[in-house]
Amino acid sequence: MNTRRNFFKVLGLAGGVAATGVAGAAAIIASSEKSEEVKQIEKIEAAGSAGYSSKLTLGSEYGQFAPPDVNRFAIRGIGPNFVPGTRKNVKVSMTVGPDGEMYLKTNGKWRKIVTE
Predict the structure, then answer these.
(1) Does 44 map to a domain?
(2) 10, exposed or middle or buried, with CB in 10 Å at 0-12, 13-18, 19+?
């Protein structure tokens, strides 16, 4: 009875690994030429909240960390302190285009994400 249970445990693990391999489809970012969909996304983005565009935006800060302040009671902002002039804010955005496909904005350019 235990061997039968172990067999199904291994079978379940192998099935999960096989399904992960199938589900891991490749994503390709299409060329940066401006299609009609990209123009529509940019138009809605320029209109602001009046365009009712919803998008997912992720951002982060990078830079050289400042040495810790020797005064423990100094008031400082939330988050890491960076050496002045080294802070860099980066962000990416993702949205659904008018054709129902995903679009990614990196370095100020919208590009279509193609999955096959």
Answers:
(1) yes
(2) exposed
